[in-house]
Amino acid sequence: MPNPLRGKNILLGVTGSIAAYKAADLASKLHQEGAIVEVILTTSALQFITPLTFQSVTGRKAYTDADLWAGEGHVTHVGLGRAADMILIAPASANTIAKLAHGISDNLLTVTVLAATCPLLIAPAMDAGMYQHPATSDNIAVLQKRGAYFIGPAAGHLASGLVGVGRMSEPQEICNQARWTLSAGGPLMGKKIVVTAGGTQEPIDPVRIITNRSSGKQGIALAQAALDAGAEVVLISAATQSPVPVGARLTRVRTAAEMLQAVLDETETADTLIMVAAVADFRPSDTAGQKIKKEQGLKAIPLEPTADILKTVQEKRKRTGFPGKVVGFAAESQNTLENAAKKLAEKGVDLMIANDISAPNAGFEVDTNQVTFLYPDGSQKKLANMPKSEVAEHIIAQVIAWL
Ligand code: CTP
After folding, report:
1. Which residues have a catalytic role annotated?
2. From ligand 1's centre to the CA of 218, what distance in Å?
3. Which residue has the higher pLDDT, 74 or 38?
């Protein structure tokens, strides 16, 4: 499944707020993610930013109230409203929110919203006092009841000089939220996918840990791809460097033992488990309660094996039937396919992704990967070196085919 923003008509409404300057960045981000971005500026927005700014980043005409009355104006709003897959109002002033709540349609933006039936996502921006005013809270509640989605506002410095809740959410967050909103109704709708990511951390003492080089990038990309397909996604994450995708339910864990417990809990009802995490195979037999001092000396750290999560899941699956399908990853530095095939059989997975970490531009930390799909019937499918996001899309395509 491609990014749900790709090829979609997003109507971006920009209203009168100093945050209007950030809307240009938002329009640019949506455009870069493949959306067709139409922009309507209210007359107040024109005090802060010009249509030319938006035209320059979207490559399309940006509309103003002048278009409501000129030429084909009388049908512009109906056309824009009907064509939109989503209307996004960012920044949304208290005034525009009030108008929308009451069905007032006295400018091109509000009349277009009234003519549209697509999802509406609103990113408010205003002074903290205006946001907290009962009139605004009531208007937001009315719109929410009608199905509108809201993002933000965030806390921070406001144009008034005060600090409080009223800042428009950051363009990247709004973009991510729009992506998730548009994924609704995808082929994995109603399916629960559990993804593990990152490297576990096994404590030696309160300061030191044993861990590995996993960045969590492939796991995060898989969670995103499952979300893009409309799934309910639980991300069980050890240490990772990438942000958690919007829409995923996050369970943070540190150790292999914590990850095992979280996986057993979450897969009780899961349709698919995708084990991307780099789980420690050994942990210190004892964790020192206090920081080990240099003077004490330390000749060796005795280790004991951790439980194999996939093998434990395999046993449970035989009894309960859950999770329905299981995908494993085999990170190998030599004899990749032989080792991965062995793990496929031992761990009882439906698909093993053999990951050649010695290949150039593959494995830990980088944004690309080199993988081969191995199936229980002995068939194999080698993918070209590609971005981890595309590897994730291929794996989710297989999950879609299964479910
Ligand atoms: N895995 C697991 N529990 C562990 C170790 C690994 O469930 N204690 C899972 C990983 O998440 C991955 C698969 O098993 O999906 C293969 O992991 P990998 O580290 O490649 O294999 P190991 O079984 O640990 O074998 P080795 O380290 O000897 O290669």
Report:
1. 212
2. 15
3. 38
At 307, the pLDDT band (50, 70, 90 cuts) reads: very high
Query: Does the model's pTM come out above 0.70?
Result: yes
**Test site for ligand 1: of 279, 333, 355, most ligand atoms within 8 A of the Cβ:** 279
Number of domains in the chain: 2
Distance 329 CA to ligand 1 centre (A): 7
Kindly give the distance from the C-alpha atom of residue 346 to the centroid of ligand 1, in angstroms, as a whole number.
11
* 341 Cβ inside 6 Å of ligand 1: no
Looking at the structure, tell me whether residues 178 and 200 fall in a common domain. no
Classify residue 271: in a domain, yes or no: yes
Q: Which two tokens stand for residue 39?
A: 């922009």
Range of the domain at 267: 192-402
For 385-394, the CB contacts below 8 A with 24+ separation are: 385/359, 385/360, 385/361, 388/217, 388/218, 388/221, 389/221, 389/224, 389/225, 391/218, 391/221, 391/353, 392/218, 392/221, 392/222, 392/224, 392/225, 393/1, 393/2, 393/225
Instruction: State the average pLDDT over residues 195-211.
Output: 97
- In 3D space, the residue among 89, 81, 178, 177 whose CA is nearest the CA of residue 140 turns out to be 89
Q: Would you say the CB of residue 94 lies under 6 angstroms from ligand 1?
A: no
Residue 155 β-bridge partners: 165
Same domain, 224 and 171: no
- Substitution site in 281, 344, 352, 357 for ligand 1 pocket (most atoms within 8 Å of beta carbon): 281
